[in-house]
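ok so heres the complex, two chains, lmk if somethin looks off
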Amino acid sequence: MGEKLYLGVDVGSTFCKAALIVGESGELVGYNTRESGTDFAFTAKIAVEASLRMAGAQSSDVAYCVSTGYGRHNLDFSDRVISEISCHAKAASTKYHTAMTMIDIGGQDNKVVEINDKGERTSFRMNRKCAAGTGAFIEEMAGRLKVHLSDMDGLARQATHDIKLGSFCTVYAGTEVLGLVRQGVAVPDIVKGVFYSVIKRVTAMQRIGGKVLMTGGVAEHNPYILTLMEELADCEVLLAQHPQLFGAIGAAIYASESGT
Amino acid sequence: MSAEFKRKIIAATQQENQVMKDYFLDLDAAAKNPDEKIAWCTSVGPAELLRGMGFKVHFPENHGAMLGATRMSTELIDVAVADGFSPNVCSYMNSDIGSFLSEKTPLRKAYGIDLPKPDVLVYNTSQCRDVQDWFEWYGRRLGVPALGMRTPRGIIGHDEDLSRAGTEQLKAMVPQLEEIIGRKMDIDRLRETIQSSRQTSDLWNECLKTNVHTPAPWTFFDSCIHMGPAVVLRGEPAASDYYRVLLKELKEKIAKNDAAVEGERHRLFWVGIPVWGRIGAQSKLFGQLAANIIASTYCSSWVFETLDAANPLESLGETYTQLYIAGDDTRRMEFVRKSVEEYNIDGMVYHDAWTCAFTTECRYGLPARLREASGIPYIVINGDLNDLRCYSDEQTSLKVEAFIEELEGI
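and the predicted structre for the whole thing:
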């Protein structure tokens, strides 16, 4: 390959993401996303190998690696560990050069991060120890509705009525969804209600306004959530480039700064 | 994150263990002696009055903390819940009542003893409401009187009327206590007890203040362990004797610049009650990040600067109605703001304890107000004092790591 490559690996609770960037330009030359499974280290290794193949590179081309995400401490080949909150913020400040609120809806938790106009992270909030409002919540509701996860976004867009789920708790919301099914409410309306519930949980974590950037797998696979966020928070919401990979890209950027 | 963090040894711990052992064995002996009377008292109840009158004193909240620290509590909470208590009320109370109902106590393993049965129960509601229900439950169950200082919370400034009302309640309690113990209150003995308690309080405060030094010689997690005598032995010379030993060691550490956390880079302040079952894990988590939690609202809650042997009942009335925890947010914020300056704090860690609204100080916007006033960053850790089902190790690690990265400008 010749040029030095920098590797970021985001071992998330649901998906493992690897991103390879070129040192000077920061160009993304290889990446891979796969389910994390139960052996994080093994999955990460496979994701890295796939990323290297995509880049036409070898492991010896990697000058530095930063790991992040739920399994960030599980990788023996990582040179440095940095939290996903910092990694997402790093990618956001590097790519967008503006003060913003960044929202990462992940499989297990949500983060709302404030970034100032110097690109510095000034504060962050996370959801409580609860799955409501996360990717796991959407997954659970898809299961209740017998709908494939990848069909949720399309279904939500077909909704003709607004449904509001009133429950705080995933279990109670599940019961509420079953109640709606029993009442004959159309599935698209319920799916939109599920999305709306996710957004409500996020907007309750912190006052949302100004420029908003959304990252994470939930936003990538369900972009209709951005539309709902714009409606609810009355602000412009931008979808990050490579939203699901964003944490891994941030980790790779840190790697390029650490390894030079 | 550095590779390994090991808690520094505090040599006085051995003596503390002995002091606590002696205290519990003395209680056990009293329980078996018909001439002795035992009072159960809330942790910031009028222990000096009880000791001054000759009672041996047991503190159910201390037992609750032991249940938490030994991680027996989560299982025992369910026993109380099955008996009709909500899982959302004080988990000290639920685990202590669960312990009573299932006859399981860490005292058995530690000292080979059971809880001493009370002759009277004395509570003070200025710390929280739950202690009243807790003690009255025992009162009904055991057929012993539950006497209370019923004092309000959320008080504004220093309330003289409230101090006087507290004193009147204590005066009204005295004849009832005299009847139970079978003798008149000896005012000179009460003065001695208050004097001794004040000494303990002053020495404890001096120990805490050693962390003004950089690097700090001990951690919040250490002080949670070493506060035992300041809670359960107020008014007994054994407590002040112990804190003289501890203070000497801490001063020696300062003289040698012996840091509790090697390479101390961040000085943090803890607001709220500890997560007892995670004291060790959190000590390691912060220590690995070269961060030391060096001061807290919690450990300072057993500093009683208004105790005055010259005015025994008046000063007890004032002390136990004007507690830090009984103050409104303005008073609490002022205390925290001053502490931030005094200890040269970089960041705040607030514990939002699921079952303790009273020690949780981040639910009414205080962290954001303090950040606005002092520019000090913060995190909120969601957890609980005793119910570990309300706590996530992973989420806490992530928050703490990200917070330290924020402080380091990463």
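quick notes: Residues 266 and 291 of chain B are 5 Å apart (CA to CA). thats all i got rn
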